[in-house]
Amino acid sequence: MKYDVTVIGSGPGGYVAAIRCAQLGMKTAIVERYSTLGGTCLNVGCIPSKALLDSSEHYHNATHTFETHGIEVGKVKVNMPQMIKRKDEVIAQTVGGIQFLMKKNKITVHHGHGTIKTPTSIEIAKDDGTKETIETGKIIIATGSKPITPPAFNYDKKRIITSTEALNIDKVPKKMVVIGGGVIGLELGSVFSRLGTDIEVVEFADKILAGMDKDCGKELQRSLKKGGMKFNLQHMVTDVQSNGKQVTVKAKNRKTEEEVEFKADYCLIAIGRRPYTDNLGLENVGIEKDEKGRIVVNDHLETKVSGIFAIGDVIKGAMLAHKAEEEGTLVAEYMAGQKPHIDYNLIPGVVYTWPEVAGVGKTEGQLKEAGIPYKAGKFPFKALGRARASMDIDGMVKVLAHKDTDEILGVHMVGARTADMIAEAVALMEFKASAEDAARISHAHPTYTEAFKEAALAATDNRAIHM
Predict the structure, then answer these.
(1) Residue 207 structural domain
(2) Do 454 and 356 share a structural domain?
(3) Is residue 387 part of a domain?
(4) How many degrees, rounded to 5, is the angle at CA 230 between CA 225 and CA 231?
(5) Are residues 134 and 236 in the same domain?
(6) Catalytic residue positions?
(7) 467: in domain
(8) Is 164 in the same domain as 305?
(9) pLDDT one-digit tens code per residue, 359-371
(10) Is residue 465 part of a domain?
């Protein structure tokens, strides 16, 4: 079999790259080691976690806010197996959609573990033990990432788990320790917290969401604490043990050197992910990796081996599905002789807790460090009519603009539906809009997006109307 291009990995980056290659007239194949398409995102990441986040939010509202709204429902209980079943149905529907797209675009799918043997050939090891080799003009590596599980944490997939196993817990735990105050830990921690689990977050840094604007982390932590989550910042985990029924997590307070111990039903390891390049055959063709195990690429995302490209979690940058998608499109179009471009500064980041967190562009800390003169405008959700109507008053919007030119340099949000709201900021920043441009756009009333307008007004000569 001979293809113009073969994509190894069928996650968002891989399948989007394949579709764009096919649209541009290339004979395209995908190699996927698992039986289903979609990669981590669709099977054990973005999609299933959002399904559980929404389910747990419905339960939380039924038990905490319905009565205030004048809705009396009687005794409410969690049916965890049904919640998991619905999550699995969402996955199946989404994966089925990708399979349909492969057929629609005449993309050949090979299931098995792909190993690069030469710059133009890939060996595929199938589940039945057989192997086949395909020939290809070009290769796109889109193999994604795996959770980081240090040996000292004794990851056993039963009581000491990662996000993969957490998505299938069929009984609400009494207590869970979450190691890591980043996106994955907070999202899954909030799922179980809303279902009634006692959550202890243990974080090495002095704040949660260390990569996002500091005000976002503060706002979210304040909100999650009100919901019952506990935070142990500046704590270094030293040991994790399980006796089969219970886990013991030992940590050291980095400020006081005090040793602390937590006992729980589960320990969720959520300290980040590593590029997945195991048995990929990079050494067969001389592809380089950096100190973090990421594949080294140039500005066109091509490795040092001509015709072999890499995208998504296996290269530098944020491990985000939408970043991988943009890179897949870029590589396909570059192969076709076009001149695509990605502005990595304008790839938004989102945390799907409730309230949601979203940000794009520079953080206030980054602007200070770079010595860029800026002005900031903030507007709290509690001053927003729409937020009061829905009882979603936690959060704020911050707009950062250049002090001299007024160009928007960063937008950071915490609140209801900010995952969707951030798209307006991205669009404006793509066109180099000023804070005044955003402030002069008519926003429907009452909506959550008015908070963005008000924050832009606040950044423009401190003239917010409703604060």
Answers:
(1) 151-271
(2) yes
(3) yes
(4) 100
(5) no
(6) 445
(7) no
(8) no
(9) 999 999 999 999 9
(10) no
CB contact at 8 A, 325 and 10: no
Looking at the structure, do residues 12 and 143 belong to the same domain, yes or no?
yes
Q: Same domain for 11 and 130? A: yes
> Last residue of some domain: 308, 342, 376?
342
Picking from 287, 319, 342, the residue at the C-terminal end of a domain is: 342
Asked if residues 340 and 327 have their Cβ atoms less than 8 Å apart, the reply is no
Q: Do 141 and 118 share a structural domain? A: yes
Tokens matching residue 189: 């921690």
Residues 456, 379: contact at Cβ < 8 Å?
no
So what's the pLDDT on residue 155? 98
Residues 38 and 123 in one domain: yes
Please tell me the total count of domains within the chain.
3
Look up the CATH number of the domain holding residue 239: 3.50.50.60
- 225 and 195, same structural domain? yes
pLDDT tens digits, 125-166: 999 999 999 999 999 999 999 999 999 999 999 999 999 999
Alpha-carbon gap, residue 273 to 321, rounded angstroms: 13
CB atoms closer than 10 angstroms to residue 364: 17
Mean pLDDT rounded to a whole number for the chain: 97
Look at residues 122, 143, 118 and name the one whose alpha carbon lies nearest to residue 3.
122
pLDDT in tens, 252-303: 999 999 999 999 999 999 999 999 999 999 999 999 999 999 999 999 999 9
**HEC string for the chain:** CEEEEEEECCCHHHHHHHHHHHHCCCCEEEEECCCCCCHHHHHHCHHHHHHHHHHHHHHHHHHHCCCCCCCCCCCCCCCHHHHHHHHHHHHHHHHHHHHHHHHHCCCEEEECEEEEEECCEEEEECCCCCEEEEEEEEEEECCCEEECCCHHHCCCCCCEECHHHHCCCCCCCCEEEEECCCHHHHHHHHHHHHHCCEEEEECCCCCCCCCCCHHHHHHHHHHHHHCCCEEECCEEEEEEEECCCCEEEEEEECCCCCEEEEEECEEEECCCEEECCCCCCHHHHCCCECCCCCECCCCCCECCCCCEEECHHHCCCCCCHHHHHHHHHHHHHHHCCCCCCCCHHHCCEEECCCCEEEEEECCHHHHHHHCCCEEEEEEEHHHCHHHHHHCCCCCEEEEEEECCCCEEEEEEEEECCHHHHHHHHHHHHHCCCEHHHHHHCCCCCCCCCHHHHHHHHHHCCCCCCCC
Distance CA 47, CA 51 (A): 6
Place of tokens 């270094």: 236
In a domain, 404, yes or no: yes
Q: Count of residues for the chain?
A: 467
